[in-house]
């Protein structure tokens, strides 16, 4: 873990008006110091923002969601933080993150409430990549909500990562009951979950799927 100083963040926030890609991952930034980025008067052109493992919590998510500097963002990586359910809801409800095509929220202490809030949002309809891996509190109710949302709010989704969660065969059944919802889905990761009987049936139901990860480390490619 590195530690970018306040002075360093301040310098970035005041010096790079044309910056489109900003990687701040593995820095102990925290909720207070992320203000340098979200409140910057010149960082208006950001398209990619990497904030993995930056010690951000739901307040950091709230600040990001309210920042006009995020309006052009297409890729947001916040893996290995602690957004929780409320933090994901802030991201989902943001009017400034509506251009996102990639959202990585791996390992963020997110549960069913968070994924349900995400599913109900109409603001992230451009998403093509969504990762919620490693959020062990996500279970069947969250998956049910997300699967149905894929037919309404996330129709462009191509890659969905839901591995390392608490999904069982009951949750996996929702992938089988919804025709034409996943027409654009190319990759699905349900590895390291509690799915057993359903894992072989899912790729049969999703004809356009190219890569399906399941079990411990098993992959079907076609």
TrEMBL record:
InterPro entries reported in the protein's UniProt record: FBXL15_LRR (IPR057207), LRR_dom_sf (IPR032675), RanGap (IPR027038)
Gene3D superfamilies in the cross-refs: Ribonuclease Inhibitor
Domain of life: Eukaryota
GO CC term (a single one): cytosol
MF annotations from Gene Ontology: GTPase activator activity; small GTPase binding
Residue ranges of domain F-box/LRR-repeat protein 15-like leucin rich repeat in the record: 43-169
Biological process according to GO: nucleocytoplasmic transport
Name of the protein in its database record: F-box/LRR-repeat protein 15-like leucin rich repeat domain-containing protein
Species: Naegleria fowleri (Brain eating amoeba)
Lineage of the species this protein comes from: Eukaryota, Discoba, Heterolobosea, Tetramitia, Eutetramitia
